[in-house]
Write a structure and sequence with these properties.
Elements (H helix, E strand, L loop, with lengths): L7 E7 L11 H4 L4 H14 L2 E7 L3 H11 L5 E5 L8 H10 L3 E5 L21 E4 L4 H14 L2
Parallel strand pairs: 1-2, 1-3, 3-4, 4-5
Helix pairs in contact: 2-5, 3-4
The protein binds ligand CA2.
């Protein structure tokens, strides 16, 4: 009988202040905590044949370091770069190094908010974007990732 292949590894990256989810600004970001989201993704991953790792940092360089270390070891990345979405060429350049599908997630609809949130430095290096669907966007992204990378 053929040996089952190892699950493909998906890294989920959360940018600055997302560690505050569920604790402040519930009208914009909801009541779900980051630990809730990571827990759901780690449960859903194996159901989709994927291994999920999660990482949050408030520091741009730490996010760049994590992406660099992952080069060659990942099947895909789901990233909510948070405020760095609108400022970080460094994270954009690091994402390009990965050469794997990238899904950009935003809990809020950045296009309905202040003009400075309308531009994303990640948008054109991402395979796709999910915005404005609340934390459900992360779970939709993981399902889409399973389709993109195969099982
Ligand atoms: O809608 C999103 O997911 C954002 O990436 C969230 C970022 C914001 O800068 C982007 O424009 C859109 C902000 C994350 C801050 O998260 C907080 C959560 C709870 C309380 C305070 C901040």
């Amino acid at each position: 009988m053929a040996k089952a292949s190892a699950p493909k590894h998906i890294l989920v990256i959360h940018g600055p202040n997302l560690n505050m989810l569920g604790r402040r600004e519930p009208d914009t970001y909801g009541h779900t905590t980051l630990a809730d989201i990571d827990g759901e993704l780690k449960k859903l991953g194996p159901q989709l044949g994927l291994k999920v790792s999660t990482f949050q940092s408030n520091h741009e360089g730490a996010i760049v370091d994590t992406i660099q270390k992952a080069v060659g070891n990942l099947a895909g990345v789901i990233i909510n770069p948070a405020a760095y979405t609108h400022t970080s060429i460094a994270i954009r350049d690091a994402l390009i190094l990965l050469a794997v599908p990238i899904i950009e997630v935003h809990i809020s609809n950045i296009h309905r908010r202040e003009p400075f949130r309308h531009h994303s430095y990640m948008a054109d290096v991402a395979t796709g974007q999910i915005v404005g669907l609340g934390v459900n966007g992360y779970y939709l992204a993981l399902r889409a990732m399973a389709e993109l990378v195969g099982r």
